């Protein structure tokens, strides 16, 4: 230390005064503030204090797993909402906990696939990311999807299936962030970097009143990215609110959830904080001699290891915070603060402590409070210390010293950008708004709604509707009103042609105005500019219950709207009314019978329909095949009688299986008494209001025409060629929830992996598929995409390496009936192989299949076939509207597929499939002729050649690893993808081509 530095330091006298936060050191009012520990210190006793004292130690720590918080539940007795945290903190199965007794911890996390950081996000130059910060800025992140584990946390929010939306004005209820107390800013959103300018779907924000609210759907939950500009302790106050049909505000009590960002993991407890407050610990500690202590607190860029193999991804973003003392035997606790907010507790051992932290790209003030361990002989007389503020700037090294004396107690410095949401009711000065649809070029357009009163708060919904389906759109519009404006940018797909574009504006419950719907275009023409006018309905107008679960009111708005005008953009030269459109009679639609008006079905047991093997007997290598679809919802081991054309249809059923047309579903595994079982966790609310586990054999998933997608240029990577060439149409169930479609995933959350040796394996084996069809499943995140199942190469198994709940994209290349034999398998710790009984999953894809009375083509699995062998899969005539597409190569891996042949009809798409060998590569000529247009405006195409995956390349996603091949980054997140065939996803979440946001 230089003499100049020493002469600048002042001489400090240290008095044994108590420190009282928010005031001067004093003994006055001591009786009101002193803890038992402080009183003991004054009396001359030195109490033994814990080594750590984090403010959330003892709470229920939710981290490194699937967490829904806050999740809104309905309290029927009190007629209001209750906010909970749904998680699995004790690894005994998911459960719900009072929100304020929990803490979400966001620590460091890395993908097991490639070691990439899952806790940092460095911003690119996309204009859509401007609300997060500057390009190159690095944020702390809780990711929307993790790979190979669920580190640091897989967080979202949601609502129970039993929320009575029929009692709410316009069916609307929302979760609000009322305030955020913390060192930085917080944002929730979904992001797909390969789909700019439609790459960001913003959800919630600490810094914008317009994004303080998120519209909920009952029975749904989100998976989203949550970012923080600085690490530290954030206290977020939430509420869930609705307005009743008679005008009353229905609100949960304001509920606080702590997000501990960075630092060490809090100590798991039962929900009751156990730590001695830092101020009490400090007041009870000896004063000592700070000049002699020679404490130093430093921050500097992280020193990378000379061996690159020892460095982890994003280590270059870290800073090292170091504490040293002259006493090399010193023990105690160092509490770090960032901008006055708790960051972490560190044990001081041998006179030093170091913590490497991602402090972010924005400057901040660090401080430390040191308390010695008075139970240790070498530390009993050591000095307590409050450091002066240590200025952090990225890339710089700074230090503060104890011989400068004590600093002031850490004072919270809130981020000035954060705002507090007012809960006062507001009546708009004008109900009017204007709607414009503007082509942006490059195939994208933006819908903008602008209110005359900029104080209106609410949500934009609606979308592109088939002419005979006013309920579920092809694409859900989704946005919040900020400063009177809502915007939504979308890829202007060709299959929106001829649909009706409707915009529905839903008001926040605090607004004294009701929803309205404006039809912007009766026959939409992609690439065309439109304008329209709408107006909210005053609350004095009659309010009808919103149709369940329709996100868009099919009836006209309460306030008449002016007929929209169409202004052709530079591309089309004709007005929309003069442009070619699809005739309404040929536009595919979802059957009205698929809307949840099915008769009640008895709740099935969570246990499988067929008894599992006895624990004492090892399960056979090839489990017993499932029976054909039962004739009633209840599971049955007896085969059903195939339906005939003369059979009378039962509304809401196909061959006795109840239709599930939308909602959250999980193929769930349970392990009890050494027996493995499989069932369907049904959160759709269609059959039962409560979440119920029922046999797969008792239901059929119906996939409407709204699932139609097209493979676009941004998914042109050759590793995705199993989907067919660019331009190929397919049906997709997305990784993120979309209204009007099933949202299936898989779930091993309730399995104790300590009882196992290795992964749990999910087997999904195609048994019946339309002629020429292919099936698959894959996931996608910021780090790329993984193929889980692929029927073209026989990939039918997903290895699930840890207890998880995950979703992925499901792809079906053709409409028609699909049957899959589904079971789980695992190896117990003693080496015993166990298999769940096989159940049969039925999926009806497209309108014709969904409206059918029976599965005339369903066949039982060959009991002599190997468990994952589908070489004998039965192919049936495709139900493609307007003619079937080309026949994709079928057969097991190693066999030559058949070349495709064009079929007659309005829009048959020819295609040729290459030979598929056991290594998962494919060579074949791509008959890439356009293939015409399906009646919905979807262009067809042939299947293409190219590599489908390399042997020996491992890939894991959502806790699952695919058995064959790896998939390069595709940017599927917010992308429409078309598949000439369906993939069979093998071991992971199901993700659809277009990362769609949860619809409401």
List the helices and strands and how they pair.
Blueprint: H1 3-8, H2 30-33, H3 36-42, E1 60-62, E2 66-75, E3 80-87, E4 95-98, E5 102-106, E6 120-122, E7 138-142, E8 154-159, E9 168-181, E10 186-191, E11 200-205, E12 213-215, E13 225-228, E14 232-244, E15 249-251, E16 255-261, H4 278-284, H5 290-293, E17 296-301, E18 319-324, E19 332-338, E20 341-348, E21 352-357, E22 364-372, E23 385-386, E24 390-392, E25 398-401, E26 432-441, E27 444-451, E28 458-465, E29 479-480, E30 485-491, E31 500-507, E32 513-514, E33 516-521, E34 529-535, E35 537-538, E36 565-567, E37 653-654, E38 657-660, E39 663-672, E40 675-682, E41 692-694, E42 699-703, E43 708-710, E44 729-733, E45 742-747, E46 760-770, E47 775-781, E48 784-790, E49 797-800, E50 805-807, E51 809-812, E52 816-827, E53 833-835, E54 839-845, H6 847-850, E55 874-876, E56 915-916, E57 922-923, E58 955-957, E59 960-962
Parallel strand pairs: 1-5, 2-8, 5-16, 38-42, 39-45, 42-54, 46-55
Antiparallel strand pairs: 2-3, 3-4, 6-7, 7-13, 9-12, 9-14, 10-11, 10-13, 14-15, 14-16, 17-18, 17-25, 18-21, 19-20, 19-22, 22-23, 22-24, 26-27, 26-34, 27-30, 28-29, 28-31, 31-33, 32-35, 34-36, 37-38, 39-40, 40-41, 43-44, 44-51, 45-50, 46-49, 46-52, 47-48, 47-51, 49-59, 52-53, 52-54, 56-57, 58-59
Helix pairs in contact: 3-4
